[in-house]
Amino acid sequence: MFTVADGPQTPADTERSAGATRSEGVTDAPRTTERSTLAMPDSPVIELRGAISLIDRFPALAGVDLTVSEGEILLVRGPNGAGKSTLLRLCAGLAPLSEGYGEVLGFRLGDRRQRRELRRQTGLLAHSTFLYDELTVEENLVFWARANRIDLAAVEPVLDRLALSNRLRTVRVANLSAGQRRRASLAVLVCRRPRLWLLDEPHAGLDVNGRDFVDGLIKHAIAFGATVLLASHDYDRAGDIASRTIVISGGQIQDDVPSAPPAPPSTRPVEPGGPRWRPGTGDNEPASTGRRTS
C-alpha cells in the first residue's frame, strides 16, 4: 500500500512536484545555483535539523534531526505511514522542506534550483518505478541516461549486467511483471551511478537471487564511495548489511543505533562492474506480449 509520501507516478509528475514553491518556514541562506560552501570533503552527506515536511498540510516529517556520513548504510525502520518514504524523498529533493534546515551533498533543500541539481546526484528507488510504460526497457535507460548527461555507451553494459540484454530489452515496460519492472528500475539506478542511493523497499517483488543481487549492489556502491539510505520491512536482511539503524514513528526519529562501523570511504570513482543478475526460471519472459487494454 502506498502512503501519501509516495508521490507522483511518472517522471514528468515528479519534476512538476519538485518545482513547488518552498515554504516560508524554511531556515536557509539566499538562493544560489552553487553548492554550499559547507560542502567540504569531510562534511556530512546529509544534514537535517528540525526538518518538517508537509504533504497536503500533514506533517509527514515533524522535526527530524539527522546526520549521515559518507560510506554509511543507514537502515530506516518504522511502521507504514511513519515517514520513511518522505525522508527518502526529502533527501532526493522531491519532498518539500517546509520548516527547519536541510542540506544533502552540499545542496540546500530550501533552494529550488539547488534541489534540481541535487536530483542529478541522487538515485531514488521508490514504489513508483519512474519508468515510462510506453517505452521499452532499453528506451527507458537511454532516456534517463540522456536526462542525467550520462554517456550512452554505459547503457549496454548495464543491460547485460541486469540480464536485460535479451528479448526483454525490446519489451514495453507496461508488459513487464512486477519483478521485471523492479529490475528495470535497478538498471536505471546502476546506469546513473549516484553518490547517494535512496532505496525504498528495494527487495520487494524480487526472488532470493534478486534480493541477493540488491545486497551485492549496495555493498559495491559503498566500496566505491557512495552512501545508502535503505527503508525496509525486511529487517533481518537489511540489518545484516546496515552500518546504522534509525526508527521513525509519527514523522520523528525515535531511535538511532549503530550496528557496525561504516565502511571506509573510497577515493576511487564509482565505475561499472560489481554483482550480476542471476535469472531464475521464467525470469526473462515478459508478463504479456500484447498491449494492455482498459
General description of the model:
There is one protein chain. Strand 2 (46-55) and strand 3 form a beta hairpin. Helix 5 crosses helix 6 (178-192). This protein starts with 10 loop residues before the first helix and ends in a 36-residue tail after the last strand. Helix content is 27%, strand content 21%. Strands 7-8-9-4-10-11 form a 6-stranded mixed β-sheet, with helices on both faces. It is globular. It is α/β, with parallel strands linked by helices and 294 residues long.
Structure, briefly:
This protein is α/β, with parallel strands linked by helices and about 290 residues long.
Label this structure with key terms:
294 residues; alpha/beta; 6-stranded mixed sheet; 5-stranded mixed sheet; 27% helix
Draw up the topology in text.
Blueprint: H1 11-18, E1 25-26, E2 46-55, E3 58-68, E4 73-77, H2 84-91, E5 99-104, E6 107-108, H3 112-118, E7 122-125, H4 137-147, H5 155-161, H6 178-192, E8 196-200, H7 208-223, E9 227-231, H8 235-241, E10 244-249, E11 252-258
Parallel strand pairs: 1-5, 4-9, 4-10, 7-8, 8-9
Antiparallel strand pairs: 2-3, 2-5, 5-6, 10-11
Helix pairs in contact: 4-6, 5-6
Radius of gyration over C-alpha positions, nearest whole angstrom: 18 Å
Extract low-pLDDT stretches.
1-25, 27-40, 265-272, 289-294
Helix content: 25-40%
Q: What spatial form do the alpha-carbon principal axes imply?
A: globular
Terminal CA distance reads 22 Å
Structural class of the secondary structure composition?
alpha/beta
Count, helices: 8
Q: Main sheet, how many strands, which sense, barrel?
A: 6 strands, mixed
Secondary-structure element order, N to C: HEEEEHEEHEHHHEHEHEE
Tell me the strand order in the biggest sheet. 7-8-9-4-10-11
Strand content bin: 15-25%
Number of separate strands: 11
- Average pLDDT figure: 80
